[in-house]
Amino acid sequence: MTISWFEIIAQIINFFIILFILQRLLYKPVLKVMEQRQERIQKAQIEADRKMREAQKLMDRYEKKIENIQKERVDILDDARTQAQQKRERLLNDYIMEAESKRHAYLKEIEDEKDNFKRRLRQNLGESAVKIAAHILNMISYKELESEVFNTFILNLRNVKQNIPDLEDLKKEQHVQVRSYRDLSQHEKTSIEEALKGQLRSLEEIHYETDPELILGYELFLETYTVHTNIRNYLTEIEKEIIKSLDSNG
């Protein structure tokens, strides 16, 4: 078999011609298409990266907002709890003050009722005492009873020295006041002055006053001593005992 150099050279020339034609007609367009495709892919990648960055920024903003919302929620709950606690304390203080006010009002009402009861008791005891005295002294007239009380008062004045241990102070007494449940007659005033003459050496003047609440009685007021002869003191002692008994039983 002989080799034809002409055919070989012709084949080589044909190959280069075909290669040139392919390069011109096929390779460059394909290469251009591939470059365009690569460029589109790069642009798409760049756009995707940009959108990813934007999405990440949005996610960061959303997370920040969620964090702020959580913080605001905690703050709102804390404020609500604080306000609720303060309101509860205010209401509790208001209730306590109202209860204390009602308690004081109730106690005052009780004290007022006690005072009213004492006044009614004093009045009733006074009336009852006179009725009892009138019943016991069945045959004694009111004038006779009045005279007996006055005579007892005069007797007490004459015995002042026996009831007062410090006679030196008694000798210094100068201001004397006499109270009676009614106006005294001149004869009664004279009896009082005579009863005191032997007791008070420096006696200058006696001041007379009337006090209807004495209930058939008389009182002598010195600067340091007092002499009582009246039903009111007796009623007061009975009243104290009754009130004490009521308080202990109540």
From TrEMBL:
Membrane topology according to the record: Single-pass membrane protein
Keyword flag Coiled coil: yes
One GO MF term attached to the UniProt entry: proton-transporting ATP synthase activity, rotational mechanism
Domain of life: Bacteria
Keywords: ATP synthesis, Cell membrane, CF(0), Coiled coil, Hydrogen ion transport, Ion transport, Membrane, Transmembrane, Transmembrane helix, Transport
Coiled coil: 34-127
Subcellular location per the Swiss-Prot or TrEMBL entry: Cell membrane; Endomembrane system
GO CC annotation, single: proton-transporting ATP synthase complex
Transmembrane parts of this sequence: 6-27
Chain's role: F(1)F(0) ATP synthase produces ATP from ADP in the presence of a proton or sodium gradient. F-type ATPases consist of two structural domains, F(1) containing the extramembraneous catalytic core and F(0) containing the membrane proton channel, linked together by a central stalk and a peripheral stalk. During catalysis, ATP synthesis in the catalytic domain of F(1) is coupled via a rotary mechanism of the central stalk subunits to proton translocation. Component of the F(0) channel, it forms part of the peripheral stalk, linking F(1) to F(0).
Subunit structure: F-type ATPases have 2 components, F(1) - the catalytic core - and F(0) - the membrane proton channel. F(1) has five subunits: alpha(3), beta(3), gamma(1), delta(1), epsilon(1). F(0) has three main subunits: a(1), b(2) and c(10-14). The alpha and beta chains form an alternating ring which encloses part of the gamma chain. F(1) is attached to F(0) by a central stalk formed by the gamma and epsilon chains, while a peripheral stalk is formed by the delta and b chains.
Name of protein: ATP synthase subunit b
